[in-house]
Amino acid sequence: MSRIAAKFAELQGRQRKALIPFITAGDPEPGQTLPLMQALVAGGADIIELGVPFSDPMADGPTIQRASERALTYGVSLRIVLGMVHEFRKTDATTPVVLMGYANPVEAYGQAAFARDAQAAGVDGVLTVDYPPEECAGFADLLQTHGIDPIFLLAPTSEDRRFADVAELGSGYIYYVSLKGVTGSAAIDLDEVARRIPVIRAKVGMPVGVGFGIRDAASAARIASVADAVVIGSKIIETIEQSPAGEAPARVTAFLREVRTAMDATTRGVQA
Amino acid sequence: MSDNKYRMPDERGHFGKYGGVFVAETLIPALAELDEAYASARNDPAFRAEFEYELAHYVGRPSPIYHARRWSEALGGAQIYLKREDLNHTGAHKINNGIGQALLARRMGKPRVIAETGAGMHGVATATVAARYGMECVVYMGSEDVRRQAANVYRMKVLGATVVPVESGSKTLKDALNEAMRDWVTHIGNTFYIIGTVAGPHPYPMMVRDFQSVIGRECIPQMSALAGRQPDQVIACVGGGSNAMGIFYDYIPRDEVKLVGVEAAGLGLETGKHAASLTAGKPGVLHGNRTYLLQDPNGQIIETHSISAGLDYPGVGPEHAWLKDSGRAEYVTVTDDEALKAFHDLCRNEGIIPALESSHALAYAARIAPTLARNKILLVNLSGRGDKDMHTVAEKAGIRF
Fold first, then answer.
1. Kindly report the CA angle at B385 between B172 and B373, in degrees rounded to 5?
2. Phi, psi (degrees; rounded to nearest 5) at A159
3. H-helix or E-strand containing B291?
4. Chain B neighbours among A 182-211 (CB < 8 Å)?
């Protein structure tokens, strides 16, 4: 069983939903990434999504673009990100790490070499934003061969036939993009999410995480009442941006604890 | 739009290993909707007839072919013929595609169009057709290009468009494209994204090529009438590559005609400050398609340089990548200085002010013409006029208005 599958099984036993925070590797500077990852775990993260910086992050809003640009000023490459995961694994053998990024750094690294090195570094899942299922059957196979879950996105606009594609190629969990637009956009349609999640979960046969537009404990708790996992990105990046030097890890932990508490209160309420 | 025997791309938009649909899931349904709408439109005689009517009466097609006799004589070799896309309404080939996509937007019931632009010609073309068909128009333009192309920015505003300067990344065409994609994904319901070149996710490379293929389709009878035969070489500049695909397309099955794409070597390939993706790049994925890209060893897209904003792009249309690998077309480079010289030479010898983009194709013709016999024919796509470049050229000469 992969670390991701094991994590979801464990959470289900404890009647908890997964909290999946996102940070960009190398933001605000490379030395901060390991302490920030540990701070996420301390705040109650179940899985960490680690963004791989890219020069042209088309699907991201201004907040994550800025994080990418900051990391790139330090030359944070995919190879360096794998090194960061390797370091994190020395201190944490259980928290799954999912790399989230764009296709071109993987293309430049070489798909096969990347799958091999990612496994060796201790990566558990890979979400490549601009590799939709129809363009990455071979890459998904390579990842599976190396024990890495290929994570796919689904959107409110996704048609039913997409479910079969991602069910066939993907594993671990589905990342449901809860609104139209880029990362960090505003409102979220909770009713729509509540309607869609059970349908998607039944069709793809894996846990469904929801992200895009979740900015605080209250919205996270509402999502936790219907989804299997809550993904929070832009809000954490903003917290890092606004922290004085050295204080980012403590502030991120504090923010996540709040979210964790609200989520757990909700899911206990649902069970009771 | 053409009865061409050459059949590319395949159903999913692949030109060999290039092209495809490399976008986030949020855009997949929009592209599927577009693909379906375009497939139905391109086979609809009424749509084709309206497109052709607009090209004839609004754009002013067919554009003539002109034999540049004095310049050919001065160069002392092959005869240079110019396909005069500079004489189109709005001054470049971009309007052909603008009309096609605006008609498709109207057919799909989308009241809002968006576009990215580099030199501003595609932005002007989009603003023009938006005014013509009564649509809301937003144009994304890198802030660096806004500075370089102030006159075109004002033209777009006069035509009623909103111009949004893009401050991210290198503040040029690629960043404008990123921002337009972000707008599209946020306003998918009412918005049509008019991409200006033969790049982006399928069906854009095919669709833009189809709309631009009117250029080459006109050339075939025009060359027969004017020169009694087809050219030995067809030469066009390549940034994204839409004017080149437009003139190449109907010539692809005619093996006796050599196809040459001219990329921007900027300050020289050896300086790293250029925009020659096919010549100096390697395959990767950007902006929805797999193609040749200028990138660092880690796959980060690098900043490009060309004196012409329209060629200043780190990628290239996937069909050009395919034509290069298959050997059907050849790709060469021309520096800023060579392009400037050709610009001035055409002005002085023929009384035609070419766009700096097109000047790259002219410069290559000028380089090889003297090495060829006088009965050889070079057909150059004069893709746009140079009025928009006056201040760039003047700046180079140390003149301030």
1. 110
2. -85, 160
3. strand B288-293
4. 182, 185
B308 is catalytic: no
Inspect the interface and report whether the beta carbons of B22 and A132 lie closer than 8 Å. yes
User: B181–A58: do the CB atoms touch at under 8 Å?
Assistant: yes
Q: What pTM was computed for the model?
A: 0.95
The position carrying tokens 């449901």 is A176
What CA–CA distances, in Å, run from B373 to A180, B256, B271? 60, 17, 34
pLDDT digits (tens, 9 = 90+) for A167-182: 999 999 999 986 666 6
φ and ψ of A228, to 5 deg: -85, -20
Closest CA to A154 of A135, A137, A179, A172: A179
Non-local CB neighbours of A117 within 8 Å, separated by 6+ positions: A79, A82, A109
Q: Which residues of B touch A (CB under 8 A)?
A: 12, 20-26, 28-30, 32, 168-169, 174-175, 178, 181-182, 185-188, 283-288, 290, 293, 295, 297-302
A181: nearest CB among B22, B30, B185: B185
Tens digit of pLDDT for each residue in A127-139? 999 999 999 999 9
- What order do you get walking across the sheet with A174-177 strand by strand? A149-150, A125-128, A97-101, A48-51, A18-24, A229-232, A208-211, A174-177, A152-154
Query: Is B94 part of the annotated catalytic residue set?
Result: yes
d(CA A210, CA A178): 6
At A272 the pLDDT is 39
CA distance B330 to B262: 9
Rounded Cα distance, B145 and B149, in Å: 6
Collapsed DSSP state (helix, strand, coil) of residue A15? coil
Q: Where are the beta strands (DSSP E) in A14-171?
A: 18-24, 48-51, 97-101, 125-128, 149-150, 152-154
The amino acid present at B388, given as its one-letter code, is: K
Q: With contact defined as beta carbons under 8 Å apart, do B277 and B294 qualify?
A: yes
Q: Is A167 on the interface with B (CB under 8 A)?
A: no
Integer-rounded Cα Rg, in Å, for chain A is: 17
pLDDT digits (tens, 9 = 90+) for B20-60: 999 999 899 899 999 999 999 999 999 999 999 999 999 99
Residue B232 confidence (pLDDT): 98
Q: Give the pairing type, strands A48-51 and B282-286.
A: unpaired
Q: DSSP code of B63? A: P
Cβ under 8 Å to B: A residues 56-75: 56-59, 61-62, 65, 69, 72, 75
Task: State which amino acid sits at residue A14.
Answer: R
Buried b or exposed e, range A79-101, using 16+ CB within 10 angstroms: ebbbbbbeebbeebeebbbbbbb
Q: Which distant-in-sequence residues (6+ apart) come within 8 Å of B361 by Cβ?
A: B235, B236, B237, B262, B380, B381, B382, B383
Average pLDDT, rounded, for chain B: 95
Give the chain B residue whose CA is nearest to the CA of A65: B168
| Res B400: pLDDT | 77
Q: What is the pLDDT of residues B106-119, one digit of tens each?
A: 999 999 999 999 87
